[in-house]
Specification:
The chain is of the alpha/beta class and 200 residues long. 43% of the residues lie in helices and 14% in strands.
Amino acid sequence: MSSNIVWHNAAVEHDERVSQKGHDACLLWYTGLSGSGKSTIANAVDRKLYELGCHSYLLDGDNIRHGLNADLGFDDASRKENIRRIAEVSKLFIDSGLIVGTAFISPFKEDREQARAFAGDKFIEVYVDTPLGVCEQRDPKGLYKKARQGEIKHFTGISSPYETPEQPEIHIKTNEQSIEASAQQVIDFLYTKKIINRNS
């Protein structure tokens, strides 16, 4: 980084933005295999937050790769850079006072820990735990089939590892409950941690 680049503090501080919004800011980091239900649950949570009057925004993996990360591939180095950029963007969103959701496979523990380091105590890891067999059966994009046929390299769960979260703040087992119940599990956690309140 050039020595000519200096960080400028904003005239409006983080605490002021949080106070204006009426709830705390945080980063809901949804992680899980492709087809596990990350985006579906994240969107359901985002809808609930909106209906509660909360200020939130969801960063979806596929959407981000259409723009900000369109230059990245799917090899390990590109996956790491993908997550680093998202963590940096999320940090800015948190500073603005938002409840940020990110739905990315983020298969490597090291990268998730880097995101946690960026967000500090605002980081909430949401492990969307869906068995590989169920994800492969769903296969909404036909990716598992292509990976099995060798058409997609570095595919998480098939030819590239997924490192299971060891102590996620929220552990959702999608084969045991509905999308509605899964989304409510996240909302209840936010109530418990007083990130949002019952009057939201």
